[in-house]
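FW: tagging you since you asked about this chain on Friday. Here's the raw sequence from the shared folder, copied in full. Didn't touch anything.
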Amino acid sequence: MMTKPRRKTPSIAIKQQVLHEAGYRCANPACRSIITIDVHHLEYVAEGGANSPENLLALCPNCHGLCHRGNIPRESVRAWKMLLLSLNEAFPRRTTDLLLGLAKADELIVSGEGVLECAPLLASDLVYYVELGERIPNGIDAVCQAHEIRYLLRLTGKGRSVVEAWKRGDQKGVVTAKGASPDHETAA
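HL: got it, structure written out here
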C-alpha cells in the first residue's frame, strides 16, 4: 500500500523568497491583496510537489481557497507564476503595479516625472501619453512662476490585451498580445 507524501511547511527563507517575488501581494493580478498571504503549491504535495520556490506562489487566503475549490483553474495559477517571474525581469515591480492600476483607472494625469516612471511601459507599447495643452501652476516655486506640463496616460490596445490575458492566466495571450494602436491625436 502506497502512502501519501507527508506535507512539510516550507522554510521561512523559501517563504520570504516567494513573498518577495510577488511583492508581498497576492499573485492573482485581479486581486493583489496585501493583507495576509498564503504560500500555494502549484503541484500539490500529494502529487509529488516540492517546497521549492519554483513550485510556490503567494496568494491571499481568499484566492488560495478558490484555487483549492477549483474555482481558479490550475493553468491560470501556473501562468500567473510564469508571468510574475517574466514581468519581474522585464519591469520594476512599481511599473507592473502602474500597469495594473492604469487598467483599473482607464487613464491617469501625471507630470513629466510620471511619464518617466512609465518609460518601460511606453517602450514596450503597453502605454501611451498625450501632452495636455494647459499648464498648471506648480505651487512649489510661486516666486519663479514655475509651471508644469501635465500628461494623460492610457493603455494601448496591446496593453489592454496583456492585462486581460494576465488576469485570465492566459500565458499565450500575454506573449502574443496585439491590439489596435490608439489614435493619439483624439485621445486628449
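FW: The mean pLDDT is 83.
HL: agreed, and The chain has two domains: 12-90, 93-182.
FW: great, closing this out.
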